[in-house]
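Notes, Module 5: Reading structure tokens.

Key idea: the token line is not a picture. It is a compressed description, and you learn to read it the same way you learned to read a sequence, by spotting repeated patterns. We will look at two proteins. The first is printed below with its tokens.
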Amino acid sequence: MKKFSDYIVYVDESGDHGLKTIDPNYPVFVLAFCIFRKSDYYEQLVPALQRFKFEHFGHDQIILHEADIRKDRNDFTFLKTPELKESFLRELTQVVADTNFTLICSVIHKELYRRKYTSPENPYHVALGFGLERVFYFLRSQGEADKKNTYHC
């Protein structure tokens, strides 16, 4: 039986992948693949994020959603003063800076992409293919190609 991989990959998107109407204020679609060595994830990142969440919210169930943080809405209304927001973002940035991980990003400027091709593929599919290929190359370079990976959607 193959040993489980020593890595875990999280994937998230920013923007929408539609090409019919493109928001001129955010004309990109981003698909980010964040690769963690499992031991770094559970020994460093998880405890650091839990401490951060308990300190700021009193519990660790909060989701750190970028749009809510940026717009000071929902659970982040307390960030309306510049001093609090700066301190909050500085602490959160330090948690990220102190964590070992590999980041692979696909960024598609949708207007340029749409102009380049007569029948462009769905940007999500293009970004996903690019990202998965790079994740595979990374895992192979770490000797993980023959290890068992599990998937959870």
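Here is the second protein, with the sequence above and the tokens below, as before.
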Amino acid sequence: MEGILPLLKPKGMTSHDCVFKLRKILKMKKIGHTGTLDPDVTGVLPICLGRATKVAEYITDAGKAYEGEVTIGFSTATEDSSGEIVEEKQVTSTFSRDQILDVLASLTGEITQTPPMYSAVKVNGKRLYEYARQGITVERPSRKVMIYSIELLDERDIFSGSLIRFRFRVSCSKGTYIRTLAVMIGEKLGYPAHMSELVRIQSADFTLEDCLKFEEIEKRLQDGNLLEKIKPLESAISHLPKYTINDTVAEKVKNGAVLKIPGYLTNEDGPIAVETENGVVLAIYAQHPEKPGLMKPVKVLRNET
């Protein structure tokens, strides 16, 4: 069994919990997830099976999309609904739809975020959440992330009340913390805030419609029709630029040969998927660090003769 199994991650489980459970269900060890989803977050978690674990990082590096809810009026230690309240301020302002839209527009494009203390980012070899659990606050490195779009999923013209909640849809780059984005929305409105709900609706090319729940996976496994829901390894890297080769070059690729970069890919500084004329990806290549005009394999995915 190999390929990508898009899982509908339930609330209350870590990404690692999901992998552990699937290893038991599928009775196989070579399984990996494609980027951490917090326990409170549900939605799309592509799971790599067998040889597809080699391409997990390319799904992780691809864009993501979420639907979430921000609550204005109090903030929490974890920046989501599971943490203890650290600041509370009754909302006395009334906001127009245009004011909310202006705030969302101001957070579109490249923004700078500071990862939350309750996150898996490493500082001095230790994950931030480990410091947080000990009550230690450390300096965190800020990072630039890209917010491609934010859409307000609320039809109201006026937003008022001692607490204000509204839903939004965001498309973003890897490394974006939607929890922190919710806090930033609150800051721009002048109030503490947190992310009260979040669903990942897309990861790379995988959407909610592709996903199976654990119960569905078990039933399909029992009925013998699970394989039809497992996506080919190629679906994980469909967003990468492609270089199509003939059978003669294919044999060289399987053996890790250095290749000349075709003219249309000379400006690519990221990974390139090298595929056969039948669309089977044999390897991931990148520009050679020492030999201009050439590219070398980063990962050989298939080397059978």
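Summary for the second protein:
- Residues 3-62+204-236 form a domain with the Pseudouridine synthase fold (CATH 3.30.2350.10).
- The chain has three domains: 3-62+204-236, 64-202, 240-300.
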